[in-house]
Amino acid sequence: MTSMVKHDGDSYGKALVISSPDELLSSLPYVLGFTPEESIVTVPFRAGMPVARIDMPKTLRDRREAIGVLRDAYAGNARPRELVAIVCLTADRRAAERSSRALATALAQVGVGAPMQLWATSDRWVDLDSGAAGPRTRDTAIRVAAEATSAGFAPPAPSRQALAASLVGDHRPVSAALEDARAEAHVSGAEVEQVWAAGRFAQFEDDGLHLPDSEAARMLLALGHKPIRDALWTNMSSENAGTHVAVWTDLTRRAPDQVRTPAASMLAFSSWLHGDGAKAWCALDRIPDDSPPYALAGLVARLLNAAVPPQMWAEAKSALDRSEAFVPDRPGRRDRDPAPISSPVPDRRAPGI
Amino acid sequence: MDEQSNGTAAFGLSALEYRLQKLADATATSTPSAVRIDWSQGVMVARPSG
């Protein structure tokens, strides 16, 4: 059932090939990264388009807004005669019918067809067009799980709430190491810290081992300095985004509030680049409410809202590479940015966050 | 906003942030919304019948 699909020259090649509504429903947690509940999911019929999930709207106003956002996103990204399946996961069949019908109509306005509309509960599915129905079977779930794992999908979180909770950890050990790390960074200087951060990230790429608390504190402080952050960011690509997701997930979990924003923003960006929009949103939610506006976070939120395909980043960044021999700014030479390494640099607030 | 020779951009955005902003500007939807869409690039493909 599984296969690797290489589409349109990018590296987002994980795919599950499905042949029944039951298989489709069992595949959703692996594709989304969590088990969806009370959700509307659109599933494209071809590789190259993303799967999208939104919360099941509770009111007419919510439904209109949610459907409008999905329609606009598809209008900007879909090819002519794109086809999607609409899956409504809810205990409320009438809500599923209303939402499915309204979404199909809206998508048709932008040239996207919806030849399959499913309503599903935890144990049953119904094709809202044909009336065909069937059970969701344990055998199918087990088979899809094995094949999804074989295809490279990570085990899904049991719910979206659980996915968000997975980014919350114990910050106390890193908090305890923060002051010493701050003092040492003040002595060593930003240029030394930039070289250290690059080398430490390379080490993580090699061994995948979590940073000890003292090094986690040092990395979080270094990341608060934009030139150091950008030196790590500029080397991020679709090929190594998974490594970035791993290291920034760990540091976001362990970071105390005052140094979490840059790590959470890097996690949000790398998750988007890795094709995992839900995790990107969860990362943005880990930015403390009272933290100064942070441009990278606001910009990632805009990309997520607009459903910008992550494949577009390589082209956008290459334009920068072409426009100049881009070398991330060296910390010691930033006359216009005299902030010490121990002080995060505030940004203007970007829309969307 | 012009990029500068040292890889930074004016108004406090770094060159990378500036590129990201240009990408967002070029692709943003017209209406900001509180609705969150979880996009995933992991894909499902229908098996050909027969």
Oligomer: heterodimer
Question: What is the count of helical runs of chain B?
Answer: 1
Taken together, the total number of domains of chain A comes to 2
Number of strands of chain A: 8
Strand-helix topology:
The complex is a heterodimer of chains A (353) and B (50).
Chain A: E1 2-4, E2 14-18, H1 21-32, E3 39-44, E4 51-55, H2 60-77, E5 82-89, H3 93-109, E6 112-120, E7 124-127, E8 133-135, H4 138-150, H5 160-165, H6 172-188, H7 190-207, H8 213-223, H9 226-233, H10 241-254, H11 257-273, H12 277-285, H13 295-305, H14 311-323
Parallel strand pairs in A: 5-6
Antiparallel strand pairs in A: 1-2, 3-4, 3-5, 6-7, 7-8
Helix pairs in contact in A: 1-4, 2-3, 6-8, 7-8, 7-9, 10-11, 11-12, 11-13, 12-13
Chain B: H1 15-27, E1 38-40, E2 43-46
Which key features would you list for this structure?
heterodimer; A: 353 residues; alpha+beta; Cytidine Deaminase, domain 2; 6-stranded mixed sheet; two-stranded antiparallel ribbon; 8 strands; elongated; disordered N terminus; B: 50 residues; 1 helix; 2 strands; 14% strand
Write structural notes for this entry.
- The complex is a heterodimer of chains A (353) and B (50).
- Chain A is α+β, with helices and mostly antiparallel strands.
- Chain A contains 14 helices and 8 strands.
- Chain A has 2 domains: 2-152, 3-Layer(aba) Sandwich (Cytidine Deaminase, domain 2), CATH 3.40.140; 172-333.
- In chain A, the strands form 2 sheets. Chain A has a 6-stranded mixed sheet with strand order 4-3-5-6-7-8, with helices on both faces. A two-stranded antiparallel sheet of chain A has the order 1-2.
- Chain A has helices spanning 21-32, 60-77, 93-109, 138-150, 160-165, 172-188, 190-207, 213-223, 226-233, 241-254, 257-273, 277-285, 295-305, 311-323; strands spanning 2-4, 14-18, 39-44, 51-55, 82-89, 112-120, 124-127, 133-135.
- By secondary structure, chain B is an alpha+beta fold.
- Chain B has one helix at residues 15-27, and strands spanning 38-40, 43-46.
- Chain B is extended and about 45 Å long.
- Chain B contains 1 helix and 2 strands; from the N terminus they run αββ.
- Chain B has a domain at 1-28.
- The interface between A and B is large, with 84 and 39 residues.
- Strand 4 (51-55) of chain A pairs antiparallel with strand 1 of chain B.
